[in-house]
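Hi support team,

I submitted a single chain yesterday and got back a structure, but I'm not sure I'm reading the token output correctly. Could someone confirm the output below corresponds to the sequence I sent? I've pasted both exactly as they appear in my results page.

Thanks,
R.
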Amino acid sequence: MPERAFHQHQPTCTVWCLASQCSAAKYSADTARPLLQRPGMVRVKEGGAAIDMEVWELPAEHFGSFADGIPAPLGISKVKLADGSWVSGFVCVAIGVEGGTDITALGRWRAWMARCSD
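Hi R., thanks for writing in. Yes, this is the structure output for that exact sequence:
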């Protein structure tokens, strides 16, 4: 499985990619606030789609510092997967995507990033 350095505040921590999954078809994907340029998944009542996701393993002792580095309006909450299971994942409060770009049709954040670099 791929691994990479945790994040800028914990460069010695390694995380592992466990799987590629799809969310349940109950989410929209947006860029969270135009200047933040991070993905924001918002659970919606109608019009949702399955979003491609990556499930990563993070050592529990590093979760606090990881969560502390997540900028508002993003956060960690439970995300329902297509198979009906739940994982902790990045979400965004609905107000946080106002003024952002709806990227739901692209199906994944990496597709948006590739499109931006073209």
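A quick pointer for reading it: The first strand starts at residue 3 and ends at 5. Let us know if anything else looks off.

Best,
Support desk
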